[in-house]
Amino acid sequence: MKGAPSVLSLEDVHLTFGGVRALAGVSFEVAPAEIFAIIGPNGAGKTSVFNVISGLYPPGRGCVLFEGRDVARVPPHGRAALGIARTFQNLALFKGMTVLDNIKLGAHARLRAGVISGGLYLGPARREELACRERIEREIIDLLEIESIRKRIVGTLPYGLQKRVELARALAVEPKILLLDEPMAGLNAEETEDMARFILDVNEQRRVTSILIEHDMGVVMDISSRVMVLDFGRRIALGTPDEVRHDPAVVRAYLGEESGLEAVPARP
To answer: What is the pLDDT of residues 95-151, one digit of tens each?
Structure first.
């Protein structure tokens, strides 16, 4: 965004798996408190971008700058401690644990208690965990409206609520950047509207920068400030939702010549 310092930027990032090119010279910047969307056909490289940002894959070439620091070689747990959190397209929850315990696991990267005090549950560790639980219940459970299920076993919950729990766990990291991998996938219309509202609430109330991969074009065009389009690992468009929906290259690559992407209606 013009005039705004970037909290995250990728510069000429390349990623290959053997002879398969996943990303080819991808570059973009994301401003603080922005909702930035990444779209493209299946296999375009969207999840590969997330895996490079979160540290699951080191780029073959290029830089990943977080708050001005190159973190391309920082491991995933180190990036979580810096403030990069993510959700997954396929839920990665502990199904046999309660909602609250799943969310508390997200705060692990922020806890400072040592191995001995933590293992023995000594005074500092106990106080830190109680403070963590209070923060989660006050700031996250209330925000996402899951107070009534906080003691439920996650595996017994409907899919839509499990998606909400995964978002809560990511927020427990106290992220500066939130990576949302298809947050609307598998949700019905009502659940999709709720999830979109929660993403907006997180952005407005907590000023968290969000980057989302999403196939629901109505959601993308409604809540994103800017949209990047990938095709075969390359960036083919970057701009506001209105600019992207009218880009001929996007219509051809993403939805086909006769798709009429510009006609996607905004949600009321």
So the answer is: 999 999 999 888 876 655 443 344 445 566 677 777 777 778 888 999 999 999 999
| Model confidence band, residue 256 (pLDDT cutoffs 50, 70, 90) | low
C-beta separation of 176 from 207 below 8 A: no
How far is 86 from 76, CA to CA, in rounded Å?
A: 11
Which DSSP letter does residue 55 get?
A: T
Cβ-contact 102, 94 below 8 angstroms: yes
Contact between 193 and 216 under an 8 Å Cβ cutoff? The reply is: no
pTM: 0.86
- Helix/strand/coil for 112: coil
Question: Please, is 264 exposed, middle or buried when counting C-beta atoms within 10 Å of its C-beta (0-12, 13-18, 19+)?
Answer: middle
CATH 3.40.50.300 domain locations along the chain: 1-83+175-268
Helices H / strands E in the chain, number of each:
10, 10
200-205-206 Cα angle (round to 5): 100
Q: How far apart are CA 240 and CA 242, in angstroms?
A: 5
DSSP per position, 132-180 = HHHHIIIIIITTTT-GGGTTSBGGGS-HHHHHHHHHHHHHTT--SEEEE
Element housing 190 (H / E): helix 189-206
Class of domain 1-83+175-268: alpha beta
User: What does R_g of the chain's alpha carbons equal in angstroms?
Assistant: 19
- pLDDT attached to residue 258: 43
